[in-house]
Amino acid sequence: MEDVLRHAGIGLRSPHYAEFLHRRPGVPLVEVHSENCFGGGRHLDVVLQARRDCEVSLHGVGLSLGSADPLSERHLRELKALVDRVQPMLVSDHVCWSSIGGVYANDLLPMPQTREALAHMARRVDQAQQTLRRRMLVENVSSYLQWQGAEMSEWEFMVELSRASGCGILLDVNNVYVSAVNHGFDAIAYLDAMPADLVGEIHLAGHTANPVTLEDGTASQLLIDTHSRPVCEEVWALYEHALSRLGPKPTIIEWDADIPPMQTLLDEAAAAGRRMQATSQRAQHAGAA
Length: 289
Hints:
The chain is of the alpha/beta class and about 290 residues long. The chain has helices at about 1-5, 15-25, 40-50, 75-85, 115-130, 155-165, 175-185, 185-190, 235-245, 260-289, and strands spanning about 10, 30-35, 55-60, 90-95, 95-100, 105-110, 135-140, 170, 200-205, 210-215, 220-225, 250-255. Helix 5 (about 115-130) crosses helix 6 (about 155-165) and helix 9 packs across helix 10. The longest helix is centred in the C-terminal third of the chain and has 27 residues, at about 260-289.
């Protein structure tokens, strides 16, 4: 467990399955998308083989925890069976909604930051945890629009949701940066609001910048969370700031589009691990001074 806390792993995706099982690269943690393993098959077989050598984080994208639709009992049954089979270190999904009236948007849509939405989502997270019989982590998503009538900031919503439901937080630092640039809030303030005891995992990824023209004719840019690029320097800086406040946390490098050779992900994970170690050493020296 100590190695997992102090080192980073990778999102294990299908183009890398054969190489990963052949090389056994020694990463302490891999993350897989839960839904890919529903029903068994090649995805689950690879996860079970990887599980012999490292810890596994099961990361869901389809539970639609914030939807007004009832939680899918079938989805929860499949997830419970998978958790029981794999015995992962971590299980997570997103603070979002992605379906309404049984129609799925194939996207992670942001929640209204209201007391009503907070209470609704807390009940549903609790329902999922009761079914799984374990604590979940919930992840902040990147967003490209904001709801009117917000009663709190996104970071306040995340922390209150965690405290109300007993879940943990999967802090996606790239998503914090993307949303901060898109909406003009302070990413440092977001990170500083995260209690160390609530954050159970960190995500790092790359994004793209799309040029846009504002209503007044001004040229600007919209950041899109594409998971298709290396981690940028701004996100690395935010990651180091988060580590300085939170301490070492299991960290995953996500890369889901324009997927490069596996070694690129391993190099990014190694870079995260070095930052984690350096931040821990600075904290130790400061404590001893």
